[in-house]
Amino acid sequence: MKGSLEAPGATIGVIERYREHLPVTEATPVFTLSEGSTPLVHSPRLSAIVGRGCRVYLKYEGLNPTGSFKDRGMTVAVSKAAESGAHLVICASTGNTSAAAAAYAARAGIKCAVFLPCGKIAMGKLAQAFVHGAVVIAIEGNFDQCLKLVREMATEPGISIVNSVNPYRLEGQKTAAFEVIDALGDAPHLHVLPVGNAGNTTAYWRGYLEYHRLNRATRLPRMLGFEAAGAAPIYYDRVVEYPETAASAIRIGNPASWKMATAAFRESGGAIEIITDEEIFAAQSWLASKEGLFVEPASAAPIAGLFKCRSQTPCAGCPIQKIPDDAVIVCTLTGHGLKDTAAVLNERVKPLAALPEKAAILSILDKAK
Ligand SMILES: *Cc1c(COP(=O)(O)O)cnc(C)c1O
Protein backbone atom coordinates (compact mmCIF):
# COMPACT_ATOMS: atom_id res chain seq x y z
CA MET A 1 0.00 0.00 0.00
CA LYS A 2 1.32 3.44 -0.89
CA GLY A 3 1.25 6.46 1.39
CA SER A 4 -0.68 9.64 0.69
CA LEU A 5 1.87 11.12 -1.72
CA GLU A 6 -0.33 11.31 -4.78
CA ALA A 7 -3.43 12.78 -3.13
CA PRO A 8 -4.11 16.21 -4.69
CA GLY A 9 -4.25 19.04 -2.19
CA ALA A 10 -2.55 17.16 0.63
CA THR A 11 0.33 19.04 2.27
CA ILE A 12 3.48 17.26 1.20
CA GLY A 13 5.74 15.71 3.80
CA VAL A 14 9.51 15.91 4.02
CA ILE A 15 10.21 12.99 1.68
CA GLU A 16 8.39 14.56 -1.26
CA ARG A 17 9.60 18.04 -0.41
CA TYR A 18 13.27 17.04 -0.29
CA ARG A 19 13.26 13.77 -2.24
CA GLU A 20 16.46 14.53 -4.20
CA HIS A 21 18.40 14.91 -0.93
CA LEU A 22 17.08 11.73 0.71
CA PRO A 23 17.94 8.03 0.32
CA VAL A 24 14.64 7.09 -1.35
CA THR A 25 13.90 5.72 -4.81
CA GLU A 26 10.82 5.09 -6.94
CA ALA A 27 10.62 1.73 -5.18
CA THR A 28 10.27 3.29 -1.72
CA PRO A 29 6.66 3.37 -0.50
CA VAL A 30 6.21 6.77 1.13
CA PHE A 31 4.39 6.81 4.46
CA THR A 32 3.84 10.38 5.53
CA LEU A 33 1.64 12.35 7.92
CA SER A 34 2.53 15.63 6.16
CA GLU A 35 5.29 16.25 8.72
CA GLY A 36 7.72 19.16 8.46
CA SER A 37 7.01 22.64 7.07
CA THR A 38 6.90 23.84 10.68
CA PRO A 39 6.82 27.56 11.40
CA LEU A 40 9.90 29.64 12.06
CA VAL A 41 8.57 32.05 14.66
CA HIS A 42 10.36 35.36 15.25
CA SER A 43 10.87 36.13 18.93
CA PRO A 44 11.08 39.90 19.52
CA ARG A 45 11.67 39.49 23.25
CA LEU A 46 14.52 37.00 22.90
CA SER A 47 16.02 39.17 20.19
CA ALA A 48 15.97 42.13 22.61
CA ILE A 49 17.56 40.03 25.36
CA VAL A 50 20.39 38.87 23.10
CA GLY A 51 20.81 42.45 21.88
CA ARG A 52 23.36 43.82 19.38
CA GLY A 53 20.71 43.85 16.68
CA CYS A 54 20.48 40.04 16.63
CA ARG A 55 17.30 38.36 15.45
CA VAL A 56 16.17 35.19 17.23
CA TYR A 57 13.87 32.71 15.47
CA LEU A 58 12.22 29.64 16.96
CA LYS A 59 11.76 26.54 14.80
CA TYR A 60 8.57 25.24 16.36
CA GLU A 61 8.86 21.49 15.87
CA GLY A 62 6.08 20.82 18.37
CA LEU A 63 3.72 21.41 15.45
CA ASN A 64 4.69 18.17 13.73
CA PRO A 65 1.92 15.51 13.55
CA THR A 66 2.95 13.68 16.73
CA GLY A 67 4.20 16.83 18.44
CA SER A 68 7.97 16.56 18.02
CA PHE A 69 10.73 16.71 15.40
CA LYS A 70 11.00 12.90 15.57
CA ASP A 71 8.39 12.70 12.77
CA ARG A 72 10.89 13.96 10.18
CA GLY A 73 13.16 10.99 10.70
CA MET A 74 10.39 8.52 11.29
CA THR A 75 8.70 9.04 7.92
CA VAL A 76 11.98 8.03 6.25
CA ALA A 77 12.83 5.20 8.67
CA VAL A 78 9.39 3.58 8.48
CA SER A 79 9.12 4.01 4.69
CA LYS A 80 12.52 2.32 4.30
CA ALA A 81 11.52 -0.42 6.76
CA ALA A 82 8.42 -1.06 4.63
CA GLU A 83 10.55 -1.11 1.49
CA SER A 84 12.80 -3.75 3.04
CA GLY A 85 9.76 -5.87 3.93
CA ALA A 86 10.07 -5.50 7.70
CA HIS A 87 7.15 -6.91 9.70
CA LEU A 88 8.09 -5.22 12.97
CA VAL A 89 9.64 -1.88 13.86
CA ILE A 90 11.14 -1.46 17.32
CA CYS A 91 12.67 1.34 19.30
CA ALA A 92 13.88 2.32 22.74
CA SER A 93 12.51 5.66 23.72
CA THR A 94 12.30 8.39 26.30
CA GLY A 95 8.83 8.99 24.78
CA ASN A 96 8.81 10.98 21.57
CA THR A 97 10.54 8.41 19.40
CA SER A 98 7.99 5.82 20.48
CA ALA A 99 5.09 8.20 19.77
CA ALA A 100 6.39 8.83 16.26
CA ALA A 101 7.30 5.18 15.60
CA ALA A 102 3.84 4.05 16.70
CA ALA A 103 2.07 6.61 14.50
CA TYR A 104 4.09 5.97 11.34
CA ALA A 105 3.99 2.20 11.83
CA ALA A 106 0.19 2.47 12.11
CA ARG A 107 0.19 4.43 8.88
CA ALA A 108 2.33 1.79 7.16
CA GLY A 109 0.40 -1.14 8.59
CA ILE A 110 3.51 -2.55 10.30
CA LYS A 111 3.56 -3.84 13.86
CA CYS A 112 5.45 -1.65 16.33
CA ALA A 113 7.00 -2.44 19.70
CA VAL A 114 8.42 0.25 21.96
CA PHE A 115 10.72 -0.21 24.94
CA LEU A 116 10.40 2.44 27.59
CA PRO A 117 12.39 2.95 30.77
CA CYS A 118 9.99 1.95 33.55
CA GLY A 119 8.11 4.88 35.11
CA LYS A 120 10.16 7.58 33.36
CA ILE A 121 7.86 8.56 30.52
CA ALA A 122 5.68 11.67 30.23
CA MET A 123 2.01 10.64 30.21
CA GLY A 124 1.13 12.31 26.90
CA LYS A 125 3.84 10.35 25.12
CA LEU A 126 2.81 7.08 26.72
CA ALA A 127 -0.79 7.71 25.65
CA GLN A 128 0.40 8.25 22.08
CA ALA A 129 2.21 4.90 21.92
CA PHE A 130 -0.91 3.12 23.19
CA VAL A 131 -3.43 4.94 21.07
CA HIS A 132 -1.45 4.28 17.89
CA GLY A 133 -1.54 0.59 18.73
CA ALA A 134 2.08 -0.15 19.63
CA VAL A 135 3.10 -2.99 21.91
CA VAL A 136 4.42 -1.06 24.90
CA ILE A 137 7.04 -2.75 27.05
CA ALA A 138 8.34 -1.13 30.24
CA ILE A 139 11.91 -2.15 30.94
CA GLU A 140 13.32 -2.06 34.44
CA GLY A 141 16.27 0.06 33.49
CA ASN A 142 17.17 3.41 31.96
CA PHE A 143 17.04 4.51 28.32
CA ASP A 144 20.57 3.38 27.60
CA GLN A 145 19.76 -0.16 28.73
CA CYS A 146 16.58 -0.13 26.60
CA LEU A 147 18.63 0.86 23.56
CA LYS A 148 21.14 -1.93 24.15
CA LEU A 149 18.30 -4.46 24.29
CA VAL A 150 16.71 -3.11 21.10
CA ARG A 151 20.04 -3.32 19.27
CA GLU A 152 20.29 -6.98 20.25
CA MET A 153 16.73 -7.65 19.06
CA ALA A 154 17.27 -5.95 15.71
CA THR A 155 19.59 -8.76 14.60
CA GLU A 156 16.47 -10.92 14.07
CA PRO A 157 15.20 -11.05 10.44
CA GLY A 158 12.27 -8.79 9.54
CA ILE A 159 12.83 -6.50 12.53
CA SER A 160 13.81 -2.91 11.84
CA ILE A 161 15.22 -0.66 14.57
CA VAL A 162 14.00 2.93 14.21
CA ASN A 163 16.13 4.60 16.88
CA SER A 164 18.53 7.25 15.66
CA VAL A 165 21.17 4.54 15.22
CA ASN A 166 19.07 3.88 12.09
CA PRO A 167 20.80 6.14 9.51
CA TYR A 168 17.48 7.01 7.82
CA ARG A 169 16.34 8.85 10.94
CA LEU A 170 19.10 11.44 10.72
CA GLU A 171 18.59 11.74 6.97
CA GLY A 172 14.96 12.72 7.55
CA GLN A 173 15.81 15.03 10.43
CA LYS A 174 18.32 17.03 8.39
CA THR A 175 15.35 18.45 6.43
CA ALA A 176 14.74 20.86 9.32
CA ALA A 177 18.02 22.62 8.43
CA PHE A 178 16.88 22.79 4.79
CA GLU A 179 13.63 24.43 5.90
CA VAL A 180 15.49 27.01 7.98
CA ILE A 181 17.66 27.99 5.01
CA ASP A 182 14.68 27.95 2.63
CA ALA A 183 12.83 30.30 5.00
CA LEU A 184 15.69 32.70 5.81
CA GLY A 185 17.39 32.66 2.43
CA ASP A 186 20.65 31.70 4.15
CA ALA A 187 21.90 29.74 7.15
CA PRO A 188 21.71 31.43 10.56
CA HIS A 189 24.95 32.46 12.32
CA LEU A 190 24.12 30.38 15.38
CA HIS A 191 21.86 27.36 15.87
CA VAL A 192 20.93 26.37 19.41
CA LEU A 193 19.34 23.09 20.45
CA PRO A 194 18.86 20.62 23.31
CA VAL A 195 21.06 17.52 23.29
CA GLY A 196 19.98 14.03 24.32
CA ASN A 197 21.21 11.30 21.99
CA ALA A 198 22.68 14.13 19.90
CA GLY A 199 21.06 12.85 16.71
CA ASN A 200 19.32 16.12 16.00
CA THR A 201 22.53 18.12 16.38
CA THR A 202 24.19 15.72 13.95
CA ALA A 203 21.27 15.90 11.53
CA TYR A 204 21.06 19.72 11.47
CA TRP A 205 24.80 20.00 10.92
CA ARG A 206 24.57 17.53 8.05
CA GLY A 207 21.66 19.47 6.52
CA TYR A 208 23.53 22.76 6.79
CA LEU A 209 26.66 21.23 5.25
CA GLU A 210 24.71 19.74 2.34
CA TYR A 211 22.88 22.95 1.47
CA HIS A 212 26.10 24.92 1.84
CA ARG A 213 27.83 22.58 -0.59
CA LEU A 214 24.97 23.16 -3.05
CA ASN A 215 25.37 26.94 -2.67
CA ARG A 216 21.96 27.32 -1.08
CA ALA A 217 23.66 29.05 1.85
CA THR A 218 26.68 31.37 1.99
CA ARG A 219 27.69 30.37 5.51
CA LEU A 220 27.50 27.63 8.13
CA PRO A 221 26.09 28.26 11.60
CA ARG A 222 27.96 27.70 14.85
CA MET A 223 26.19 24.82 16.59
CA LEU A 224 25.47 25.37 20.29
CA GLY A 225 24.03 22.44 22.25
CA PHE A 226 22.71 22.23 25.80
CA GLU A 227 22.63 19.10 27.91
CA ALA A 228 20.85 18.92 31.25
CA ALA A 229 23.40 19.27 34.07
CA GLY A 230 22.44 15.86 35.52
CA ALA A 231 22.66 14.13 32.14
CA ALA A 232 25.68 15.67 30.47
CA PRO A 233 27.95 12.93 29.09
CA ILE A 234 29.25 14.98 26.15
CA TYR A 235 29.97 18.04 28.27
CA TYR A 236 31.88 16.01 30.87
CA ASP A 237 33.24 13.61 28.25
CA ARG A 238 32.22 10.50 30.15
CA VAL A 239 29.26 8.11 30.24
CA VAL A 240 26.73 9.04 32.93
CA GLU A 241 25.43 5.81 34.38
CA TYR A 242 22.42 7.28 36.16
CA PRO A 243 21.35 10.36 34.17
CA GLU A 244 18.95 12.60 36.09
CA THR A 245 16.82 15.48 34.84
CA ALA A 246 13.12 16.32 34.79
CA ALA A 247 13.53 17.03 31.07
CA SER A 248 12.88 13.39 30.20
CA ALA A 249 13.57 13.75 26.45
CA ILE A 250 17.22 14.52 27.19
CA ARG A 251 17.73 12.11 30.09
CA ILE A 252 20.50 10.27 28.24
CA GLY A 253 23.78 9.05 29.71
CA ASN A 254 25.45 7.51 26.66
CA PRO A 255 24.37 9.33 23.47
CA ALA A 256 24.05 7.28 20.29
CA SER A 257 25.43 10.08 18.09
CA TRP A 258 28.08 11.22 20.56
CA LYS A 259 31.07 11.27 18.17
CA MET A 260 29.25 12.86 15.24
CA ALA A 261 27.78 15.60 17.41
CA THR A 262 31.15 16.33 19.02
CA ALA A 263 32.55 16.77 15.51
CA ALA A 264 29.67 19.12 14.64
CA PHE A 265 30.32 21.33 17.68
CA ARG A 266 34.05 21.41 16.94
CA GLU A 267 33.91 21.89 13.15
CA SER A 268 31.27 24.60 13.39
CA GLY A 269 33.13 26.62 16.02
CA GLY A 270 30.30 26.00 18.45
CA ALA A 271 30.10 24.41 21.88
CA ILE A 272 28.27 22.00 24.15
CA GLU A 273 27.15 23.48 27.46
CA ILE A 274 24.95 22.52 30.40
CA ILE A 275 21.85 23.97 31.96
CA THR A 276 20.16 23.11 35.27
CA ASP A 277 16.59 21.84 35.60
CA GLU A 278 15.72 25.02 37.45
CA GLU A 279 16.91 27.11 34.51
CA ILE A 280 15.02 24.84 32.10
CA PHE A 281 11.72 25.26 33.96
CA ALA A 282 12.18 29.00 34.27
CA ALA A 283 12.76 29.22 30.51
CA GLN A 284 9.76 27.00 29.75
CA SER A 285 7.51 29.18 31.83
CA TRP A 286 9.02 32.39 30.36
CA LEU A 287 8.53 31.20 26.79
CA ALA A 288 4.92 30.22 27.39
CA SER A 289 3.94 33.36 29.32
CA LYS A 290 5.98 35.92 27.36
CA GLU A 291 6.00 34.59 23.80
CA GLY A 292 2.94 32.33 23.75
CA LEU A 293 4.78 29.12 22.89
CA PHE A 294 4.30 26.06 25.11
CA VAL A 295 7.11 23.53 24.82
CA GLU A 296 8.08 20.48 26.81
CA PRO A 297 10.91 20.92 29.34
CA ALA A 298 13.73 19.56 27.13
CA SER A 299 12.75 22.02 24.40
CA ALA A 300 13.25 24.96 26.75
CA ALA A 301 16.96 24.12 27.18
CA PRO A 302 18.11 26.33 24.27
CA ILE A 303 16.10 29.24 25.63
CA ALA A 304 17.58 28.71 29.08
CA GLY A 305 20.91 28.56 27.30
CA LEU A 306 20.43 31.91 25.58
CA PHE A 307 19.57 33.46 28.94
CA LYS A 308 22.74 31.99 30.40
CA CYS A 309 24.82 33.28 27.48
CA ARG A 310 23.48 36.75 28.24
CA SER A 311 23.84 36.51 32.05
CA GLN A 312 26.67 37.72 34.33
CA THR A 313 28.13 34.21 34.23
CA PRO A 314 28.21 33.00 30.61
CA CYS A 315 30.20 29.87 29.86
CA ALA A 316 33.84 30.32 28.95
CA GLY A 317 34.22 30.57 25.18
CA CYS A 318 30.46 30.94 24.64
CA PRO A 319 29.93 31.05 20.84
CA ILE A 320 27.42 33.87 21.23
CA GLN A 321 30.41 36.19 21.85
CA LYS A 322 31.80 35.20 18.45
CA ILE A 323 28.81 35.97 16.24
CA PRO A 324 28.64 39.34 14.51
CA ASP A 325 26.24 42.17 15.34
CA ASP A 326 22.87 41.78 13.59
CA ALA A 327 23.39 38.00 13.56
CA VAL A 328 20.57 35.55 12.97
CA ILE A 329 20.02 32.93 15.68
CA VAL A 330 17.73 29.91 15.39
CA CYS A 331 16.63 27.82 18.38
CA THR A 332 14.89 24.52 17.77
CA LEU A 333 11.83 24.02 19.97
CA THR A 334 11.87 20.23 19.73
CA GLY A 335 8.55 19.15 21.25
CA HIS A 336 5.09 20.38 22.27
CA GLY A 337 4.33 21.28 25.87
CA LEU A 338 1.06 19.31 25.90
CA LYS A 339 3.05 16.09 25.91
CA ASP A 340 4.12 16.60 29.50
CA THR A 341 1.52 18.61 31.39
CA ALA A 342 2.58 17.03 34.69
CA ALA A 343 5.79 19.03 34.37
CA VAL A 344 3.85 22.27 34.82
CA LEU A 345 0.75 21.26 36.76
CA ASN A 346 1.45 20.90 40.47
CA GLU A 347 -0.10 22.03 43.75
CA ARG A 348 0.93 25.61 43.07
CA VAL A 349 -0.95 25.76 39.77
CA LYS A 350 -4.69 25.49 40.08
CA PRO A 351 -7.70 27.52 38.98
CA LEU A 352 -9.03 30.18 41.37
CA ALA A 353 -12.36 29.06 42.82
CA ALA A 354 -15.17 31.59 42.46
CA LEU A 355 -18.93 31.95 42.60
CA PRO A 356 -20.67 32.60 39.28
CA GLU A 357 -21.00 36.32 40.06
CA LYS A 358 -19.60 39.23 38.09
CA ALA A 359 -18.52 41.24 41.14
CA ALA A 360 -16.61 38.31 42.62
CA ILE A 361 -14.83 37.72 39.31
CA LEU A 362 -13.92 41.40 38.90
CA SER A 363 -12.37 41.45 42.35
CA ILE A 364 -10.31 38.32 41.56
CA LEU A 365 -9.09 39.85 38.29
CA ASP A 366 -8.15 43.02 40.12
CA LYS A 367 -5.92 41.10 42.52
CA ALA A 368 -4.32 38.91 39.84
CA LYS A 369 -1.11 40.26 38.40
C1 LIG B 1 14.45 13.45 21.16
C2 LIG B 1 14.26 14.77 21.75
C3 LIG B 1 15.33 15.59 22.13
C4 LIG B 1 16.76 15.15 22.02
O1 LIG B 1 17.18 15.02 20.69
P1 LIG B 1 18.47 14.16 20.36
O2 LIG B 1 18.46 14.01 18.90
O3 LIG B 1 18.28 12.86 21.09
O4 LIG B 1 19.65 14.91 20.89
C5 LIG B 1 15.06 16.85 22.64
N1 LIG B 1 13.80 17.28 22.80
C6 LIG B 1 12.75 16.52 22.46
C7 LIG B 1 11.38 17.05 22.67
C8 LIG B 1 12.94 15.24 21.93
O5 LIG B 1 11.88 14.50 21.60
Topology of helices and strands:
Layout: H1 14-17, E1 40-42, H2 44-50, E2 55-60, H3 70-83, E3 88-92, H4 96-108, E4 111-117, H5 123-131, E5 135-139, H6 143-153, E6 159-161, H7 167-173, H8 175-184, E7 190-194, H9 199-213, E8 222-228, H10 233-236, H11 258-267, E9 271-275, H12 277-291, H13 301-309, E10 328-333, H14 358-367
Parallel strand pairs: 2-10, 3-4, 3-6, 4-5, 7-8, 7-10, 8-9
Antiparallel strand pairs: 1-2
The protein binds pyridoxal-5'-phosphate.
Strands side by side in the biggest sheet = 1-2-10-7-8-9
User: What order do the SSEs take from the amino end to the carboxyl end, as H and E?
Assistant: HEHEHEHEHEHEHHEHEHHEHHEH
Mean pLDDT: 94
The proportion of residues forming helix, as a percent range, comes to 25-40%
Q: What structural class do the secondary elements suggest?
A: alpha/beta
Bound small molecules, by name, code or SMILES, are: pyridoxal-5'-phosphate
Largest sheet: 6 strands, mixed
Low-confidence stretches: none
Alpha-carbon Rg, integer:
21 Å
Alpha-carbon distance between the two ends: 56 Å
Strand content: 5-15%
Overall shape? globular
Q: What do these coordinates show?
A:
The protein is an alpha/beta fold and 369 residues long. It has helices at 14-17, 44-50, 70-83, 96-108, 123-131, 143-153, 167-173, 175-184, 199-213, 233-236, 258-267, 277-291, 301-309, 358-367, and strands spanning 40-42, 55-60, 88-92, 111-117, 135-139, 159-161, 190-194, 222-228, 271-275, 328-333. Strands 1-2-10-7-8-9 form a 6-stranded mixed sheet, sandwiched between helices. A 4-stranded parallel sheet has the order 5-4-3-6. Strand 7, helix 9 (199-213) and strand 8 form a beta-alpha-beta unit. The longest helix is centred in the middle third of the chain and has 15 residues, at 199-213. The model has no long low-confidence stretch (mean pLDDT 94). Bound molecules: pyridoxal-5'-phosphate.
